[in-house]
Write a structure and sequence with these properties.
single chain, alpha/beta, Spore Coat Polysaccharide Biosynthesis Protein SpsA, Chain A, 2 domains, 4-stranded mixed β-sheet, 9 helices, 14 strands, globular
Length: 299
């Protein structure tokens, strides 16, 4: 099986360089595609100077799902691995990925994060909604066969966040299995902080409501899942108000964002479900447009 590795990047030149170094060291035989959003930090020049990157795709869209779809579009492998900038492949990664593909068409593994005493990792995450068991993939460490990518039409570009969660629901919807490979691990590159810790509460709940409504319709399990998440987050935030860590006005504003996000997400999710009644549930997928790439450079 020929493998392509797609690395989306946006204003992360040094983090990207560390990721590419790890791919060259641990998986030198794979095709490497970098998809560069509208970066302003010299990423383009750095990538074009490297001999270990096969294709550089420049896009104007800041959406991670548009970047994923653009990379998939220019990948030639029978399978595509998606690795986020700021993550480093371990020595066991490539063998574990290939072992996973012998078990399932979708393979994912953990991210190791440095802590004071060493490193920590995460276990496999599964959930059940409306009778469907979903294995959630790691968005920064994922391998998918071309067949599944085509069956699902890639990633849903409506979503600014939660695209991998939506992908997981749709994989379960077409009854494809997911192989969790603990040895298929990635580690955070030194200096990579994982991005801002500030949450966009409106988009979090818009994404949650959208992907649940799109994949399952407006049923009690969907409303219950959204409600439980909102109550849990609201309770935690209220505790911060009582502890003096958050102002009450901020808590109220967050509540308004959550309600607005839920309403918008449910409406747009039901619209998307009506637009694509097939099992792939992806009206804004890879085939919906062909204008993502501003320019393409091949080595």
């Amino acid at each position: 099986m020929e493998l392509s590795v797609v690395v989306p990047t946006l204003d992360g030149r040094e983090q990207l360089a560390g990721t590419l170094d790890s791919v060259a060291a641990n998986a030198p035989e794979v095709e490497v595609i970098v998809v560069n959003g509208p970066s302003t930090d010299g990423t383009t020049g750095m990538v074009r100077d490297r001999t270990d990157v096969d294709v550089l795709v420049e896009i104007a869209d800041r959406s991670i799902n548009a970047a994923r779809n653009a990379g998939i579009e220019h990948a030639s492998g029978d399978a595509v691995a998606l690795v986020n900038q700021g993550l480093s492949l371990t020595a066991e990664w490539i063998d574990a990925l290939r072992a996973g593909f012998r078990e399932a068409p979708v393979v994912t593994g953990p991210t190791h994060r440095p802590v004071r005493a060493g490193k920590t990792t995460e276990p496999v995450e599964r959930g059940t909604i409306a009778g469907r068991t979903v294995t959630y993939v790691n968005p920064g460490n994922l391998g998918v066969t071309r067949k599944v990518i085509d069956d699902l039409d890639g990633f849903d570009e409506y979503l600014d966040i939660g695209g991998a969660r939506d992908f997981s629901h749709r994989v379960a919807g077409i009854e494809r299995s997911v192989s969790w490979q603990p040895e298929m691990a990635v580690e955070r590159v030194v200096g990579a902080d994982g991005g801002s810790t500030e949450r966009d509460w409106g988009w979090k709940y818009r994404s949650l409501a959208y992907r649940l409504a799109k994949n399952y319709g407006l049923r009690p399990a969907v409303i219950g899942r959204v409600y439980r998440n909102a109550v849990s987050d609201g309770t935690d935030a209220l505790g911060e108000v009582f502890n003096g860590e958050r102002q009450a006005s901020v808590w109220l504003d967050t509540g308004r964002q959550v309600i607005g996000g839920v309403v918008r997400g449910l409406k747009d999710g039901l619209t998307a479900r009506a637009r694509d009644r097939s099992q792939r549930r992806n009206p804004r997928g890879r085939s919906s447009r062909r204008d993502r790439a501003v320019s393409v450079f091949e080595n």
